[in-house]
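Key result, reporting period 2: structure in, sequence out.
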């Protein structure tokens, strides 16, 4: 006994410790680990916490059930009042209609008196029911309602009930096993349209079948006219009916509440909606009265031998509630302490105010209301009323989030730039959904960038188009980065990583458009180099905000630039081979001093400063046209390639240069070995000297200046020429 009391006191102390407002799980576990003697203590403590968790879950379950019952009862009472108002209105309308349409003066006195008596007696007592059931029979169609409804004292005969239920089972697939109950019959049925509860979007056409103890919802089978498929079955004692106020174009609707879900249906018109509301409430009331009578009869019969436990079988929680009340009488003061004042007008109207703010797109006002509520409930306990309020508010939060997400969806208008998204993003961040706001913001901006690139007009001049493309893209990227920094300042740093990933993805989009215009159209290497230079200059603008994406451009363009270098290399090699095939080894005659001056200027531009020594009298040049053309073309290729250069292209550029130079070197070597004319041989040796001693050193020096380090392959190629100079008669090929 003493051990049990100690265990109970330990559990109570543990419960109070876990429920305290200053409880911190990490500190608690740390203290527990320090105080425990070993693994066994920790396991025992874990078992106590687990038992406490199970007890809490049971209490929560009990409270949910109790609150749900109270909610159903409250909703039922509200519906009763509304139903009575509908009935009163309908009675007055019927009596007025009867008095206006029946000319009593034309009837015999006896008939008039009988009609008046029937109107006064039957109109008040049964006229409403007569009209109602007449309409039910009209509405039923394939499922005629029985002669009496829930308000009818006698009710339909057994044969009529059975026929109606049999017809129902034949027309609805998948419900036979659910409706085989004795005494069950159809009360009312009709076509309805179901709407989505959050956005009021039409979902599907359904048919409702109201039985005396449940409501069956079936969906239409379009391919089989007049047939339905089972959708759901709801017991009436767990169902609440709520009228939905008309808000055009949404009208003639009512809501069914079945814990924990709800469904909204639209009737064909206001009259049918009223009938659904009335007959549902009337049938529920009849079912409740029937169950109450059965309980009274069972309670009356209990002293005559019925076990007490049988009376409590209806509610699985009542036994636990009674035991708890017997064991723990002093629990009332604790419940008193847990009460939270929710009577303020702004709290009572909070769900409706949130609905209004969402409908009016006043997102800031909605989030302000939520912040106000959270501050008010921050340090307060969570009794059932608070949990119920939070459930309602959470539903509105979900609706608000969906609207904000829609505002940021790429399908919305993308005009206004990044600042147009600030409102929705800031409210999502305030709602604690920073990661989602970041994802949606970046997705929206990606769609905006993609649209801006697609709307660019393709210009005839590639360089002009690239200027426009770079301006549009990098300006958008810069604005997005600044807006991102403004919106997400002070948030989780992981968002900045997401932005870098997004920037790389956006850069891929830019490079696709860039490459399609520059490289796929086979532009010259000089044009490609100028376009790449423009892109790099725009990319450096991002360094002002600490974002360097130059390496991403290099990575994404490396294959295209490699392809361009390879293609231009092949063009130079083919042109050189073609000139070599027509080589006559004759001096160049430029005919005019202007042409000679121009050639000297071109060679100086190529870096060949000693070209003067190869010029002769008048307009002659002591070099072959093939060697001069090769020099200009090779140096031009090197200059353009160096404008495109970055480390990933080092070997490609070097190998291309070596291949181009080898074509000229091999041709000179071949000509020296096979030329028999001494005069021509001397001229060939002079061209070889220019090639090896002037051109190759210039290429080597310019490559080292552009790259920042010497090229061993070029040095080896020049040193191999010594064999040619030492033994020009050799037949050994210099390769």
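The corresponding designed sequence is given below.
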């Amino acid at each position: 006994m003493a051990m049990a009391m100690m265990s109970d006191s330990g559990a109570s102390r543990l419960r109070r410790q876990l429920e305290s407002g200053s409880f911190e799980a990490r500190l608690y576990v740390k203290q527990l680990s320090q105080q425990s003697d070993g693994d066994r203590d920790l396991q025992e403590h874990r078992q106590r916490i687990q038992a406490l968790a199970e007890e809490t879950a049971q209490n929560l379950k009990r409270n949910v059930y109790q609150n749900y019952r109270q909610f159903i009862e409250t909703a039922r009472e509200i519906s009763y009042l509304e139903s009575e108002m509908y009935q009163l209105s309908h009675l007055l309308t019927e009596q007025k209609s009867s008095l206006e349409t029946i000319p009593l003066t034309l009837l015999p006195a006896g008939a008039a008196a009988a009609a008046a008596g029937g109107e006064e007696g039957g109109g008040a007592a049964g006229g409403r029911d007569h009209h109602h059931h007449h309409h039910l029979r009209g509405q039923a169609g394939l499922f005629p309602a029985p002669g009496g409804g829930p308000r009818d004292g006698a009710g339909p005969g057994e044969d009529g009930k059975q026929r109606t239920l049999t017809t129902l089972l034949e027309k609805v697939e998948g419900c036979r096993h659910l409706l085989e109950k004795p005494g069950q019959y159809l009360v009312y049925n009709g076509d309805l349209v179901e709407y989505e509860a959050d956005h009021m979007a039409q979902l599907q056409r359904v048919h409702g079948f109201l039985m005396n103890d449940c409501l069956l919802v079936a969906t239409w089978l379009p391919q089989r006219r007049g047939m339905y498929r089972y959708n759901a079955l709801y017991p009436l004692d767990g169902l609440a009916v709520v009228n939905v106020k008309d808000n055009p174009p949404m009208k003639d609707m009512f809501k069914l509440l079945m814990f924990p879900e709800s469904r909204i249906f639209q009737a064909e018109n206001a009259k049918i909606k009223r009938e659904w509301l009335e007959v549902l409430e009337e049938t529920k009331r009849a079912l409740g009265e029937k169950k109450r009578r059965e309980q009274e009869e069972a309670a009356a019969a209990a002293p005559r031998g019925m076990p007490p436990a049988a009376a409590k079988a209806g509610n699985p929680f009542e036994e636990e509630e009674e035991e708890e009340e017997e064991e723990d009488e002093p629990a009332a003061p604790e419940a008193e302490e847990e009460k939270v004042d929710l009577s303020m007008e702004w709290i009572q109207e909070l769900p409706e105010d949130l609905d209004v703010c969402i409908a009016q797109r006043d997102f800031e006002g909605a989030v302000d209301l939520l912040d106000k509520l959270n501050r008010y409930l921050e340090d307060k306990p969570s009794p059932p009323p608070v949990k119920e309020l939070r459930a309602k508010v959470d539903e509105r939060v979900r609706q608000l989030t969906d609207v904000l997400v829609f505002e940021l969806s790429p399908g919305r208008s993308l005009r206004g730039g990044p600042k147009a998204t600030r409102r929705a993003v800031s409210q999502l961040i305030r709602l604690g959904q920073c990661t989602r706001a970041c994802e949606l913001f970046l997705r929206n901006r990606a769609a905006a960038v993609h649209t801006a690139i697609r709307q660019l007009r393709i210009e005839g001049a590639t360089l002009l188009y690239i200027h426009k493309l770079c301006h549009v893209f990098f300006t958008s990227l810069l604005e997005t980065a600044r807006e991102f920094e403004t919106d997400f300042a002070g948030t989780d740093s992981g968002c900045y990583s997401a932005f870098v990933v997004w920037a790389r993805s956006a850069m891929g989009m830019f490079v696709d458009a860039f490459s399609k215009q520059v490289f796929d159209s086979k532009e010259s290497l000089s044009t490609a180099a100028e376009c790449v230079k423009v892109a790099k200059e725009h990319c450096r603008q991002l360094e002002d905000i600490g974002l360097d994406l130059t390496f991403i451009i290099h990575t994404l363009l490396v294959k295209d630039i490699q392809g361009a270098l390879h293609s231009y290399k092949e063009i130079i090699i083919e042109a050189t081979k073609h000139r070599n095939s027509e080589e006559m080894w004759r001096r160049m005659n430029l005919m005019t001093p202007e042409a000679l001056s121009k050639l000297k200027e071109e060679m100086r531009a190529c870096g060949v400063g000693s070209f003067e020594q190869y010029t002769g009298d008048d307009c002659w040049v002591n070099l072959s046209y093939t060697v001069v053309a090769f020099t200009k073309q090779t140096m031009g290729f090197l200059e353009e390639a160096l404008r495109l250069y970055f480390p990933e292209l080092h070997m490609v550029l070097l190998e291309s240069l070596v291949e181009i130079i080898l074509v000229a070197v091999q041709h000179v070597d071949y000509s020296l070995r096979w030329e028999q004319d001494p005069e021509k041989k001397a001229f060939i040796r002079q061209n070889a000297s220019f090639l090896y001693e002037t051109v190759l050193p210039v290429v080597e020096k310019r490559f080292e200046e552009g790259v920042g380090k010497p090229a061993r392959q070029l040095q080896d190629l020049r040193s191999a020429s010594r064999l040619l100079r030492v033994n020009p008669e050799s037949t050994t090929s210099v390769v």
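The chain has four domains: 33-85, 177-298, 347-556, 571-725. Residues 1-6, 104-156, 305-337, 722-735 have pLDDT under 50 and may be disordered. This case is discussed further under Risks and Mitigation.
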